[in-house]
From TrEMBL:
Record's keyword annotation contains Transcription regulation: yes
Keyword presence, Kinase: no
Annotated transmembrane regions: none
PANTHER family for the chain: ARAC-FAMILY TRANSCRIPTIONAL REGULATOR (PTHR43436), TRANSCRIPTIONAL REGULATORY PROTEIN (PTHR43436:SF1)
SUPFAM superfamilies documented for this protein: Homeodomain-like (SSF46689)
GO MF term set: DNA-binding transcription factor activity; sequence-specific DNA binding
Protein name: AraC family transcriptional regulator
Amino acid sequence: MSVVQPVFETPDDEIDQLANTLSRQIQKWAPEEGLTPTAVPGLELVRANSSLTNCIGSTVYDPSLCLIAQGSKRIWLGDREIDYGPLSCMVSAVHLPVLGKVTEASAERPYLGLKLAVDAQEVTALVLELGEGLGEMEERECAETACGLGRVQAEKGLVDALLRLVSLLDSPQDIRILAPLVRREIFYRALVGEIGLHMRKFAVADTQTHRISRVIAVLKDRFTEPLRVRELAAMVNMSESSLFHSFKQVTRMSPVQFQKKLRLHEARRLMLAEGMEAATASFRVGYGSPSHFSREYSRLFGVPPRTDVSKLRGELPQTARA
């Protein structure tokens, strides 16, 4: 497994104060554990009051920018393990099924973070407007930048802009006018900062990530159907071998593994949210054999479906999204 070691830098006094203020704001507007929608379009806040030692949550990341204000967590994406902590900024350029676990949180100092949905059209407009201003960014496509999930330590300007976006919750009458302006600043600061290479993937059409995002969109819409790699490769003008290689670079898993995780995540949701029996859920998501479904479910989530659902219904809300 590829392990990305944490790069949690000690913030200077000014950015430390920004982080503390952001933590207080998130704590105020997210009084309960779990993911909390807000009045600011696209902005969600997350909170956990304990590390839940044995609780690994599952989710599918949407294209988004996330920041941890306080606490830390670990994410598993395919064969990649990522630790991130205070002021870690993460960008998910495509939809990605991940496992997540809060590793540092307590009632006195809860895990606090935020998630901001990224609109590709907004980012594209900024890239076009900046033009040559982004030309000096080094174009490299190593394993780290090729992955659809990027992580850096947030810079002061970005933290300040995110704080101002969250602070708009104190003046709801200003949200309609000011939120779009602050969002634009956030995306600008992300584009010109260290996370810029990942942000640009939202805007550049003829890139590996963009092609794989088109494949992912089809898989998300048709995950219950048999996988047809040849058709997917033809759709994005790639050979089957190139698609397999590129898909694994971006998602850290093969198309078959990706589809399997989508199916299992959806089955889990159906059992939790709709009270569906495991066998019924397995057929709904495309499995032909309940026993095969149970084996793969246990392999991913660690326990059989019924045990897992019973445990989750007695536990706190998931906090794997940010």
